[in-house]
Amino acid sequence: MSRFRMYPTPAQQASLLEQCKHARFVWNLALEQWSMWRRDNGPTPGHVEQARQLTEARSAFAWLRAGSQTVQQQALRDFDQAVKNFRAGTHGRPTWRKAGLHEGFRIVGPQACRIVQLNRKWAAALVPKVGWVRFRLSRAIPGAKSYRVTRDRAGRWHIAFAVIPGPIPAPATGGVVGVDRGVAVSAALSTGELLRCPDLSSRAAARLTHLQRRLARSRRGSNRRRRVKSAIAKLHAHAADRRKDWVEKVTTGLARRFDVIRVEDLGVARMTRRPKPRPDFARPGSYLPNGRRVKAVLNRGILANGWGSLVRRLEEKAPGRVERINPAYTSQTCSVCGHRAPENRESQAVFRCVACGHQAHADVNAASSIAAGRAVSARREMPGRVSPKREPQLATSV
């Protein structure tokens, strides 16, 4: 997906928001019809029937007729494809689209090819019912047959062309690297490199704290609350942009430098779930402490370091060269002698093997164990004993 920043005029922004509203309305209406299916009521309307109903609705309602039929029909096609993907088991169940959160629509076909390059820095796209909208040329325009116009929470507009870039070729040097993901160090490599994902500056973080306190004092529905929420969204968007840029640069570098990249097989979505409440059976209706506050801090640290996006982009840029390793005891296993014991990990950053005396940064040692495939399973083994004949265990090979 090749994305560019759009700069519509105020009048074009209002028109784009109307198109987003129409696409969201059509999607949610199709989802409502699909969700009403019951065994006793018979089948719900399919794509062809919904397209016919949309034509009737456009003739009956002027506000819907004022929008682009191309955008509305494409929303129905996108929903039909989402249902097919859900039934095929490749994607999740289609969900509702909400105002302010899902602002966007897609253009497919000949109308998506109406792109004009104005000069070396600017180009324009002819959006139906909106006109020519300028966007910044940060790279060459790909030859795509569709594009999506979106608006994020910070109020920025983007145009994204549906182009899947090719994989990065392997260097063919036989190099293998292990990547250990953490919170203090975002990614530690077996080569000794410590990579840290950039976060907000101290000044921006202080402003974020100040804005969050102002938001807590604002009255719901007020203009002040709306302005404060917009300012907070811009800071979060800035942090997300920096994190995404870091992930893209790191994954491209790893794919170009190494033939095999080994990472821990971690379930990030499962690890960042909220802890379940603990009912207090001695006092009905009450609950015991479940460590929610501490878990929330850990979850924010995991998400802020881009654990999931790092591995996902590696698998997309280096298909077939990313191997997931069983993460059990990688932080306690010596990368030199293979000795495993909790005492090896002196602190968060220091690793000193009690058997051979090997000392290194704890995350680098774990990355070296991952690169060598020295991840032991959680079977019944005595602490500190690892069979020297153990073969590397790969969880899955992607």
UniProtKB/TrEMBL annotation:
Residues 3-40 form the Transposase putative helix-turn-helix domain. Residues 375-398 are annotated as: Disordered. The keyword NADP does not apply. The keyword Zinc applies. Residues 378-392 have a biased composition (Basic and acidic residues). One of its GO terms (molecular function) is DNA binding. Residues 168-273 form the Probable transposase IS891/IS1136/IS1341 domain. GO terms for biological process: DNA recombination; transposition. In the C-terminal section; belongs to the transposase 35 family. This is Transposase. It comes from Kribbella sp. HUAS MG21.
